[in-house]
């Protein structure tokens, strides 16, 4: 049994664009035609493939087909570009990637300039959750802390991002200067990126040897996170490369000299013979080798 490529492309468009109507506009057909194609594909597979929600989401059975649809589309675009050769004029290849916020704000963005003929669609999430978008077929590649390859993907270790526990001088004097670290980390206000972010709790546990529940602020943007620490909203784990200049200038204080948290990062991407993904992988590995710790 083979899958109808038109039905597959239509299903992938529904998920990518979020609705049957949006997919119909992109494909230049009626919403009724989109619905008929998706239903026909579901009959072939014998499973419901998409939840008719706002936006539409693939079911567990639909996720592999979303990924397959994206892979077919990528390979078709590359083959068409090669066939056209010097004629040019082809649309840029679009590549969707998910990256953790600190990498995106730091070493990752310059990678994109290495592929001037690619249109990037960037997503961001906590490094412990970025692989979920890869499983769902929503992205082609991910910077993730997950070292086990997602089905259908290659995985490459990039290195480790080192974090330092820092606070403003005033916050340090108020909460840490005259207290045992175990006591201070248990009660001092802390800043987290979002509710998925467990790095601060991991570090506090390493210092206190127990789970703690201090007052917590959530600041979901890398630059704003660091600025909130500088302003004294609370302490937080800041990438070493960002923290060092502030430590040298006295804008921040290292709360636990000699202690740090290393977060291993991996690059996972579709296992395809794709020139674009190969070039992107090479650029990512090169940038990570300069920016991340190897041990």
TrEMBL record:
One MF term in the entry's GO annotations = DNA-binding transcription factor activity
Matches recorded under Pfam families = HTH_1, LysR_substrate
User: Origin, by domain of life?
Assistant: Bacteria
Q: Which residues form the HTH lysR-type domain?
A: 1-59
What name has this protein been given in UniProt?
Answer: HTH-type transcriptional regulator LysG
Alphabetically ordered keywords of this record: Activator, DNA-binding, Repressor, Transcription, Transcription regulation
Fetch the InterPro entries from UniProt. Answer: ArgP, LTTR, LysR_HTH_N, LysR_subst-bd, WH-like_DNA-bd_sf, WH_DNA-bd_sf
Q: Which PROSITE patterns match?
A: HTH_LYSR
Q: State the family it belongs to.
A: Belongs to the LysR transcriptional regulatory family.
